[in-house]
């Protein structure tokens, strides 16, 4: 049994600064053994220079179960910090951990003066991991209590969280303000851009009001704090998409910019006449036009993987689509028009066989279902902050380390160089090599808050919820005569459905839905090749976010029926 928090406070109070650091090391020496079976990737906490693993044991069950924090590190200072966290949290219930003011402990110990900014990041990472474990326990415990399920079995360490759509919706200020006519907005255009939860808005405001400065520039207090926040967002995002390291995360202005950087910086310098770029007709223009242009510039050929009649990639044609000449495969993980979810892992397997580089457009997938670039063996993945419940003007380009090293920067300037002389420049290592000039600092930190929020509500649960809404909408649309749904059955799609009604122009339909407070998108959705392939000029699209509810689906279907009555002769 380690020391109590009071004992640590007392010891600390009697020591000068140097002895306090020594004491921290001693606390680390006394840390109990950490089971080697728990030294797994999923228990790693990132953000520190050293390696850290963290897990928890549970004694008892239900809401009174007590958690014991288990953790270890290869750094003795970090082990000292772990000992403090254990003393602070040990024996508390999940609910107590969530309300425990750990910052007060850090303040009392004046920890800031003993640890470097990197270590502060690591400490914050450990606290967030503990809170996330406690959050999951609290959710499952209250679910079990509510359902009166037997409490005798111990709770699993990482149970799937229960999803409460109304609770989620309440966190979005814009969805809780009535429109002029008293209706609340039924927002069904998250595929274009998602709304932001209050915590993201508050985080952006906090930065602006409390410690805004440029990033990677000043060593004064604001500069240090901004760097910590900025780099911890990078680490959080790396963890969120299963990247090996935060160095593989490049901040961009969005998906479009990221894809152009890959096309111009990685593909253009290496493609030659006779090489093939394999893509699909369902791509958004952002993942189509850059490849078309690279093909024109280099003499490579742009090839399309065929689709099945219901709008999925035709896997039976993969054998002929992938050849020794395939150098790049650029594919969306989820179509922004058909809603189709593509088999990325299988495509990655094919890429490895022929030595092609896999570029995945994650704009519609990353915000809606869990992604692991490591498990899916993806070379490049891009997504946008504004579709991930975060700010506009920020996006993420993940690149496998070796690919980022091969890739040329396409924007030159400050921060991305290690040396500049009159005749030449030497680039910094990734990700700095691709982050020339001032980054969208507040937006990056806001995106970090959005990802943290998504992790807290549970992305797998969001996915399940959106799948259910999609099934309900699909069933409702199928009952409407002369309505054509594009794309596959619900089990092969995410939360997007596009359709057309015979005799009704999508723009007219959108206008009437708007009158009923129902916001949808109409047009070609930046997928002109797909609309040409389907032989239509436009469609109406419904796309869900975590905050949509079954009531939204019903409101949409009611408004659709009214529009139909109004628009059809
Ligand atoms: N790719 C897909 C699949 C999209 O849906 C979108 C936007 O709708 C983009 C790329 C472009 O994203 P952004 O406009 O954020 O660059």
Classified in CATH, the superfamily of the largest domain is Type I PLP-dependent aspartate aminotransferase-like (Major domain)
Helix content: 40-55%
In angstroms, what is the radius of gyration? 26 Å
Spatial separation of the terminal alpha carbons: 79 Å
β content, as a range?
A: 5-15%
Shape: globular
Level-1 CATH class name of the largest domain: Alpha Beta
Bound molecules: pyridoxal-5'-phosphate
The biggest sheet amounts to:
7 strands, mixed
CATH-derived architecture of the largest domain: 3-Layer(aba) Sandwich
- Unreliable residue runs: 147-161
How would you describe this structure to a colleague?
The protein has 569 residues and is α/β, with parallel strands linked by helices. It has three domains: 5-143, Sufe protein. Chain: A (Alpha-Beta Complex), CATH 3.90.1010.10; 248-438, Aspartate Aminotransferase, domain 2; 459-567, Aspartate Aminotransferase, domain 1 (Alpha-Beta Complex). 41% of the residues lie in helices and 14% in strands. The protein is built from 19 helices and 17 strands. The protein has helices at residues 5-13, 17-29, 76-89, 94-99, 102-109, 117-147, 165-169, 198-211, 221-240, 255-267, 289-298, 318-321, 344-354, 401-406, 441-457, 459-478, 506-515, 528-534, 550-567, and strands spanning 52-59, 66-73, 186-187, 249-252, 276-280, 301-305, 326-332, 357-361, 380-384, 395-399, 417-420, 425-427, 483-486, 496-501, 518-519, 521-523, 539-543. Strands 4-10-9-8-7-5-6 form a seven-stranded mixed beta sheet, with helices on both faces. It has a four-stranded antiparallel beta sheet with strand order 13-14-17-16, covered by helices on one side. Strands 1-2 form a two-stranded antiparallel sheet. Helix 11 links the parallel strand 5 and strand 6. Helix 3 runs parallel beside helix 6 (117-147), helix 8 packs antiparallel against helix 15 and helix 9 (221-240) crosses helix 15. Residues 147-161 have low confidence and may be disordered. Bound molecules: pyridoxal-5'-phosphate (PLP). The site of pyridoxal-5'-phosphate (PLP) has 14 residues, from helix 10.
